Amino acid sequence: MMSLADRLFEDMKKAMKDREAGKIRLATIRMIRAAQKDAEIAKRDGLNDDEMLAILNRELNKRRDVVGDYEKANRTDDLMRLQQEISVIQEYLPEQLEESELRAIIQKTIEELQVTSPGDRGKVMKHIMPGLKGLADGKLVKQIVNEVLQ
Q1: What's the whole-number average pLDDT of the chain?
Q2: Fewest C-beta atoms under 10 Å: which of 12, 16, 30, 126?
Q3: Helix or strand or coil: residue 88?
Q4: Range of 144's domain?
Q5: pLDDT 10s digits, 7-25
């Protein structure tokens, strides 16, 4: 099976061949690969798929954080480009868990840890997040944990 880094490289080559049809796709893949190269230089070694997933999630969150600002400023062209970039990044991430599945996992974890107060949210998050890496947005997990503990 092809690694995530190899898949990005192959998709970049394909987008370069497609020229006009893949401009945003190519630019997005290049941004991801630039972040990958920065991480490889810092690590002084290649990245495994988990590290690549962390980079993809970071790039996705950067874009999601800006969406609201673009909507408020009525920058529709930039907003469309940003949404296209988000969809390209999501192609490389594993399928996200549904909210109902996420709620069930969180509820089970809270019961296992016997947590009852909202002050123990950190304990739940510390226990649950490693297993959900790449499968759920951390902000959504935090929101659901807060709701369940209230």
Answers
A1: 89
A2: 126
A3: helix
A4: 99-149
A5: 999 999 998 988 766 689 9
